[in-house]
């Protein structure tokens, strides 16, 4: 069965960088629509970045230019490179996957397969 598994969460100072990884079982990441979502304390889950079958990427306006979503087909891993992190980026980050095509980022309900989440904390 498809089971994304995130790793790489850390506590960093503002301006620092973190790279999150998502290993996906059962299916190649290149054959799925993949995305990173995040949920800050007391807030709803929101889309951060997504990538579809044709490598079209979509970014939340708050992270555009700082975050980059990529995938390594050989290793079957999805990445989220986060640079110039700010306190507002503090959240639990989730990896999501779906076989069916999703236009753009989509909503959490568009993705059927989720990881357990990994925490990123950014201090000023």
Residue share in β-strands = over 45%
The assembly state of the depicted protein chains is single chain
What structural category characterises the helix and strand content? Answer: mainly beta
Please provide the ordered H/E string of secondary-structure elements.
EEEEEEEEEEE
Determine the mean pLDDT. Answer: 95
Radius of gyration: 13 Å
Number of strands: 11
The total count of helices amounts to 0
Low-confidence stretches: none
Q: Calculate the terminal CA-CA distance, rounded to whole Å.
A: 40 Å
Shape: globular
Q: What's the story with the biggest beta sheet?
A: 7 strands, mixed
Determine the fraction of residues in helical runs and give it as a percent range: under 10%
């Amino acid at each position: 069965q498809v089971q994304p598994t995130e790793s790489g969460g850390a506590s960093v100072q503002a301006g620092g960088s973190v790279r999150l990884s998502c290993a996906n079982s059962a299916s190649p990441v290149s054959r799925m629509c993949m995305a990173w979502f995040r949920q800050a304390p007391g807030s709803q889950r929101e889309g951060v970045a997504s990538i579809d079958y044709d490598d079209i990427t979509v970014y939340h306006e708050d992270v555009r230019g700082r975050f980059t979503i990529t995938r390594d087909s050989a290793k079957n891993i999805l990445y989220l490179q986060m640079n110039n992190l700010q306190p507002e980026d503090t959240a639990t980050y989730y990896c999501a996957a779906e076989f069916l095509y999703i236009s753009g980022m989509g909503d959490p309900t568009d993705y059927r397969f989720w990881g357990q989440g990994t925490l990123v904390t950014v201090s000023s």
